[in-house]
């Protein structure tokens, strides 16, 4: 049995299939850990959802910001954006089945000392906090009135964690950190609009995983989301979004020995930032 971390698919089913062939993936024996953003921008979002859902327990998946955007569009709480490639899912007979499956996915997966999240974790959280707070969001996504939650999801505030946060402010910060964050300052204040390389980050900020007081340093974290960062392999971090959607590569990292496997991505129009 082998476990592989795989970066953001964003509708690139052909790349996923080629990568699974490259690693000789054996469903029912091996597992893939997918960092979220299964859908959007790429040519086959519907195919990606169907393929990954069909893998059952052989795929471990967290939600990304594009997956949540699809849920908002599907629920009618926001409109599709220029560049979205969600129509095939919205028109599919399995639309509601797929949306319900996505709503049941977590924001964080913890297994042994591994933590997987799409984007990042606030430095004030430890691993247990991350799992507990992700579960608060999951409870709202699975509630009968989940559309009310989605209708109030968008926004950049609050930009710093406070355990006294309540209601949508609390939930919105959790979602923003786990699905959108790249950089923050030493106090954990998040700058959500930054999408460039770490060397071009504003003064006084740093990648979330480099904050000195981060409380998840004992965990080994798997994340995606930051295509401009590219592949990063450290003892405490596997960052695996290598810009498949922007014509670079889709990457798998075998967890037990950090062996890297890559296949060419699928270039689509865009700036490669998200």
Strand-helix topology:
Blueprint: E1 3-6, H1 13-22, E2 31-34, H2 45-54, E3 59-61, H3 65-75, H4 87-90, H5 95-103, E4 108-111, E5 114-117, H6 127-141, H7 146-151, H8 167-180, E6 183-185, E7 190-191, E8 205-207, E9 220-223, E10 232-234, E11 237-239, E12 249-254, E13 260-264
Parallel strand pairs: 1-2, 2-3, 5-9, 9-11
Antiparallel strand pairs: 1-12, 4-5, 6-7, 6-8, 10-11, 12-13
Helix pairs in contact: 3-5, 6-8
Which key terms come to mind for this protein?
single chain, 274 residues, alpha/beta, Purple Acid Phosphatase, chain A, domain 2, five-stranded mixed beta sheet, 8 helices, 29% helix, 18% strand, globular
Would you mind describing this structure in some detail?
The chain has 274 residues and is α/β, with parallel strands linked by helices. The chain has a single domain, classed as Purple Acid Phosphatase, chain A, domain 2. Helix content is 29%, strand content 18%. The chain is built from eight helices and 13 strands. It has a five-stranded mixed sheet, covered by helices on one side. A five-stranded mixed sheet has the order 4-5-9-11-10, covered by helices on one side. The chain has a three-stranded antiparallel sheet with strand order 7-6-8, with no helix packed on it. Helix 1 (13-22) links the parallel strand 1 and strand 2 (31-34). It is globular, with a radius of gyration of 17 Å.
């Amino acid at each position: 049995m082998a476990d592989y971390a795989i970066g953001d698919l964003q509708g690139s089913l052909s790349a996923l299939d080629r990568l699974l062939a490259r690693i000789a993936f054996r469903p029912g024996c091996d597992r893939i850990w997918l960092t979220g953003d299964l859908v959007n921008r790429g040519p086959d979002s519907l195919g990606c959802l169907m393929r990954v859902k069909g893998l059952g327990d052989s795929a471990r998946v967290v939600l990304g910001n594009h997956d949540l955007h699809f849920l908002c569009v599907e629920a009618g709480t926001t409109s599709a954006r220029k560049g979205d490639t969600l129509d095939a899912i919205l028109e599919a007979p399995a639309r509601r089945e797929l949306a319900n499956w996505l709503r049941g996915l977590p924001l964080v997966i913890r297994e042994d000392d591994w933590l997987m999240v799409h984007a990042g974790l606030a430095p004030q959280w430890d691993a247990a906090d991350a799992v507990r707070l992700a579960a608060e969001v999951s409870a709202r996504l699975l509630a009968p009135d989940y559309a009310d939650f989605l209708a109030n999801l968008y926004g950049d505030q609050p930009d710093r964690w406070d355990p006294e946060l309540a209601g949508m402010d609390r939930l919105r910060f959790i979602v923003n950190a786990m699905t959108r964050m790249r950089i923050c300052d030493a106090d954990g204040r998040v700058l959500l609009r930054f999408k460039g390389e770490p060397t071009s980050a504003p003064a006084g900020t740093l990648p979330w995983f480099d904050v000195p007081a981060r409380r998840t340093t004992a965990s080994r974290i798997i994340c995606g989301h930051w295509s401009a960062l590219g592949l990063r392999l450290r003892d405490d971090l596997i960052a695996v979004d290598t810009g498949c959607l922007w014509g670079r590569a889709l990457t798998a990292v075998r967890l037990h020995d950090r062996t890297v496997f890559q296949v060419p991505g699928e270039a689509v129009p865009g700036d490669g930032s998200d």
